[in-house]
Amino acid sequence: MGVDACRFFFLSRSADSQMDFDLELAKRQSADNPVYYVQYAHARISSILRLAEEKGIDYSGGDVSLLTSDPELALIRRMLQLPEMMELVAQTLEPQHLPYYAMDVATVFHNFYEKCRVISDDGALTKARLKLVAAALIVLARTLHLMGMSAPKQM
Predict the structure, then answer these.
(1) pTM: predicted TM-score of the whole model, two decimal places
(2) Long-range contacts of range 37-40, CB-CB < 8 Å, 24 or more positions apart?
(3) For 3-146, CATH number?
């Protein structure tokens, strides 16, 4: 079991609540382990962006107004909550909100990934979706960093 798993599980409980630490879950490398699930989302996004780079796709000019499907909008909405989440954690001194937010972002991203092909034959939509996943990478990396955890590019 790594440091990241310990931090995630410790942070996910409020200071005034009892903690049941599931050692077997913390060691597991599967979607059941919340740390692995969040870090896997980051690694998956990194892989998508590496593939785009290998294909020579420049998505810097992507038109995000093309992102209109429910999974795309759900991911955008969830990512836009990061500043509010930061403010909540700072004002209440309750860091347990961060792991739950990270899990939410990862869940919404995985749903988006299953329903929306990022790199496709539609060049304009590909660039817009790559811009979206690049933003998701930033949100997940910052959230993991705030919790003192690594943001792996490969798993």
Answers:
(1) 0.85
(2) 37/103, 37/106, 37/107, 38/8, 38/99, 38/102, 38/103, 38/105, 38/106, 38/140, 38/143, 38/144, 39/4, 39/144, 39/149, 39/150, 39/151, 39/152, 39/155, 40/106, 40/155
(3) 1.10.730.10
